[in-house]
Structure of NAD(P)-binding protein:
Amino acid sequence: MSQLLRLEKLFDLQGRVALVTGGGTGIGWMIAEGLAANGARVYITGRRKDVLEQAAAKFEKEHRGEGAIIPLPMDVTEKSSISAGQEVIALKVGRLHILVNNAGQTGPVTPFLNDTNAPEHKSPETLGRAMFDSASFKDWSEVFSVNTFSIYFMTTAFLGLLAKGSKDVPGYTSCVVNITSISGINKLGQVQLAYNTTKAATAHLTKMFATELALKKVPVRVCSVAPGVYESEMTYPTITPDMVDKIGKSIVPQPLQRPGSAQEVAGTVIYLVSPAGCYTNGQEIVVDGGYTAVNPSTR
């Protein structure tokens, strides 16, 4: 038993097969690199094949002899593309142990919302009309399609392979990790109400999947990780300490006054998908430097 408590056993990813959506850049890349550096065979997806190939080449150069990064072009908003990706992994390896639903995008914003001196705040009528005019149903649908709908279709498409992964390793249970955000927990709109709503919906979808699969005795766990302010291609590639609160649009300053690191988000995911995390199901872990501890949140 004492040998099982050693770090290399607790967080053993040797031989695991993983898929990370949006895995070529930002938080997705941080997670994919962390999984592969610890021995996993990681498929990274995205719509830009060149970005995926560059990421895979970078990993091969810096981590030769460890795990592997394999590019797998995929559009997570298209069922046919998801099915094609599922067929590739079914044919090549026949199982999946780890699915990280990370792909995401920002949505319509209302920059005037937090500026109470802006003309839109002249009256409830002008504020409501400005918010009404700031986006279309299509704008909201598009961000929901990537941030929430895709998680339903990815998880269901790969469920059979994930169940096979659980049978592949004694005492291990495959895991889906959905990357949500503190924006889904934050009671502040952060001038991006559509995005925040998609992340809250994804957090609840995570819990429903975990419960329904457990009740149906499907051997697949489902959890989520909610990052705070992190550097990414989608938001800011570089974040200095003075930018943290501007990006987070907080009322109270974030206690650590810095963005999160690759180690912190990848390490959290590694815990969930490793033997150490096999007793954890249906949970959302917040990795935000204390942002939601000091600002209005649903937690």
Remarks:
- The CA atoms of residues 252 and 295 lie 6 Å apart.
- Residues 2-287 form a domain with the Rossmann fold fold (CATH 3.40.50.720).
